[in-house]
Design brief:
Elements (H helix, E strand, L loop, with lengths): L1 H39 L1
């Protein structure tokens, strides 16, 4: 049962990592877009 709990924790951590990666990617895209818009104006 300890093993099962560890697997659950790892899955949760992987999910959190994926979410933070996606979040950072989103921030980067927003930043790049702002930079492009700033250059145009």
């Amino acid at each position: 049962s300890i093993q099962r709990g560890e697997i659950g924790c790892n899955k949760k951590k992987e999910l959190t990592d994926l979410m933070s990666v996606a979040y950072n990617q989103q921030l980067k895209e927003q930043y790049d877009e702002r930079k492009r818009n700033g250059k145009k104006n």
